[in-house]
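Standup notes, protein team

Yesterday: finished cleaning the Saponaria officinalis set.
Today: alanine transaminase structure.
Blockers: none.

Input for alanine transaminase:
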Amino acid sequence: MPCRKLTVIRLNFIQLVQILSCSVGNPQSLGQQPITFFREVLSLCDHPNILDRPQTKELFSADAIERARQILDQLPGRSTGSYSPTQGNKGLRETIAAGIEARDGFPANVNDLFLTDGATPAIHTMLHLLIRSKQDGILVPIPQYPLYSASIALYGGTLVPHYLDEAKGWGLEISDLKKQLDDARSKGITVKTMVVINPGNPTGQVLTEENQKQIVDFCKEEGLVLLADEVYQENVYAPDKKFHSFKKIARSCGYGENDIALVSIHSVSKGYYGECGRRGGYMEVTGFSSEIRKQIYKLVSVNICSSNVNGHIIASLVMNPPKVGDESYETFRAEKDAILSSMTRRAKILEDAFNSLEGVTCNKAEGAMYLFPRINLPNKAIKAAESVSTAPDAFYARRLLEEKGIVVVPGSGFGQVPGTWHIRSTILPPEDKFPAFVDRFTAFHKKFMDEYRD
C-alpha cells in the first residue's frame, strides 16, 4: 500500500507540473514555427482554386505562387490528392536531384531517387532487401538509433555492433570496425551493410571529412553497402565542422557509380524545417546492379503510391528553397538563420549545464538535435534501480519525469558501453523557456545525488 500511495502522489504531482518533452526530435511540437515559404506553397498546392483570386497576390509571395503553379503542373490531375508514381513524381525528383548536385558538386540522377514517407520507410526498404536470414549482419554504431536494431530484428538479421569512442568525441575507429567485422565473419555471419548516422543520433557528433574518407575506403575494400543516414545535415553547430554527404566524399575519392554501393537518406523532419508530421524524404540509391534495383522497385511498389504527395513537395522545397532575388528570400533566410542560431545557443547552454553537474560529463554539441551526457551514478542509486528491476539510467529518467516533469530517454535504449549510463535530451525546448528547463534539471540532479550519494 505505501508504494501504491507514493505512486499516486507522484502521478498527481506530474499532473500539476508542465510536462516538457525532451525525448523526441519533434521541433514543431515544442513551438518551432514552420518556414513561411514552404507552407505558402503547400497551401496553394492543396487548394489550387485560390491561385487566380485577386486576394492571393496580397496574401502570398509571388515566388510561392509561381512555385505552386510549377508543382501542380507536374502532378496527375494537378492535385495533391492523386497517387504518385512508385518512385515519386518525376518533376519533384528532378528538383531534388538538382539540389543534391548543387550541394555536392557532383551529378545526381533522377532515376536513383525514391521519394519516401521520411527516413523510416527508406531504412525499412533497404534492410528488408539486404537481410535474408540470421546469417546476414548489419554493422551499426553503438549508441544507435533504435529504429536500426528493431528493423534488423524484424527482418531476422543480426546486428553487428561497433562502439563509438566517447573519450574521443564519439569518434569512429576503423580498427574497431575491422575487428567487429572479422569477428562476425568468423562466426559465419555475412556482413552486408554498414550504417553511418551523420550528424549522429543520439550522440550529436559530426564526422570529420578524413574520417568519412576512411569509412568510404573501408566499405569499398570490404564490399559493404554504405547506408548513410544524413537526416540532420542542416543541424551543424560546431564552427570547425561542416556536413559533407557520403556521396560527395565517395566521388571526391575517385569512386564512380559502380565502385561502391551507397544509399543516402534524407528527411524533412529535422534540419531547420522540422516538418515531422509531413512525412517527407528520399533515398538516393547508387552503385547497385540493375537486377538489385529492380528488387528495390518491387519492394517500393507494394505500397502502390510511394508516399504522401505533400511530403514529396516539402522535400523538393527543402532541396530548392528561395534564391537571392526571389520575393520570399529575405524572410526565408531570416527564419532559417534564426532557428539554426537558436539551436546553436541552446546546444551550448545545455552542454555547459550538463558539464557543471556532479558526476556528469558531456561531449561537445556538434550537430543533430541531442546531447548524450554520461551520468556516473552512485552505487546506492544503482542498487535502488536493481531492487525495482530497472536499468539505472531508466531509474534516473523516471525520477526526473516524476519530480520535474522532464521527459528524456535512458541511454540503455540506444546501447552503451556496459557499466556506463547516459541519457539523451533534445535541445528543442523554446529558447525563452530554456533557463527554466535547465534550472529544473539542475535542481533535480542535485537532489538525486544528495539522496543517493555513497
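Follow-up from PR in the comments: The chain has a mean pLDDT of 94.
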